[in-house]
Amino acid sequence: MENSDVETLLGEAETAFEREATEIETGLDVDGAGMLQLKKACRLLKAAKHLREENGYYTVVIEASFGAIERTLQFYLLKNGFLQPEEYIDHQTVYERSYDAGLYDEELRDRLTELWMDNRSQSYYRQGIASQRRAEKMLELVEAVHTHVLQLAGESHECICNTA
User: Within a 10 A sphere around the Cβ of 19, how many other Cβ atoms?
Assistant: First the structure.
């Protein structure tokens, strides 16, 4: 990438992340790691719905749906002390910890994990092609997970995506 703008722009991006955030995204200026994950889940869900309406952005809808499910589960884990804000957990661990927290049974844990492992990466890396039906079903799933977790947590009023 010599003789391109990549190196300069990479430096500018690095500097932007090193500086304190200003002019932050509306709705994400919240106290607490759990609430931040909830608001991020809402943003991902709302973006996925918008892109579905634009028609043809199925890969992004699927990707955002998986992200929204994980952020929703992380919200619950953080809110209820099953995860600490400074902890980093990977995709699979989110599903495992949510099972440990009693959000669902072993069978559902295994199915959610398998759905992520078998399909998220395939859609993302084009080994499995995203389709309208797949995107629609992922949106229905994330909306159900999001609504269920918010109701269980008693935090439906904090939702900014109008799903719960």
Answer: 7
